[in-house]
Amino acid sequence: MAKQSKKQKEALAKHDLTKQYSLEEAVAIVKDITFTKFDASVDIDVRLGVDPRKANQMVRGIVTLPHGTGKTKRVLVLCTPDKEEEAKAAGADYFGLDEYLDKIKGGWTDIDVIITMPSVMPKIGALGKILGPRGLMPNPKTGTVTMDVGKAVQEVKAGKIDFKVDKYGIIHTGVARVSFENGNICENAHEVLTTILKLKPTAAKGTYVKSITISSTMSSGVQIDPKSISSK
What we know:
By secondary structure, this protein is an alpha/beta fold. It has helices spanning 6-12, 23-32, 84-90, 98-105, 121-125, 128-131, 149-158, 182-198, 227-230; strands at 20-21, 41-48, 60-64, 75-78, 94-96, 113-116, 160-164, 170-177, 209-216, 222-224. α2 (23-32) packs across α8 and α3 (84-90) packs parallel to α7 (149-158).
């Protein structure tokens, strides 16, 4: 068994790993047990009682965090020349088409979000093996395939995120940075959690939200009582 550092021991002494806390209590604990020298991400893991292999139990959604993500997202807009000025004005980091398609084919993926137009999607489809595993493939359901590329860029820059349940029935997403005020972390997390609650598939039987855990990049997880979310 790996030897625990002094800070790890201090962190574990500050909360009960078997106890469920309110969102506010859990956020305070995570901030108290984070010792990183960098501004760590605050992440939420939600284990759902769904079978992601069945299309009618897939849980996927988008949400705009009230206080943003705390991270500057690099946005690439793959568009025709007539949309380039719109993308630029909205704050896109990169915009264009063929030159960026060639760069991606060569292995370049130094971006966080790709936004494109419906007419361009056939060209992007061939890049699925590169973009898919990295979560970069544009999708109409997340608002990244649209004619209104300017609005889409602004929403992403303002804190819009998308989430999707994985094959194990877990949604994992970042909701803030440790440097955020406690109340702002809580509001961001609450926005994500209540959105997930609203997306319960009718085909899902039994307990929908099995567990909720919040943690920072390097901290241990703190359990949140699901009832403290649904009751708000």
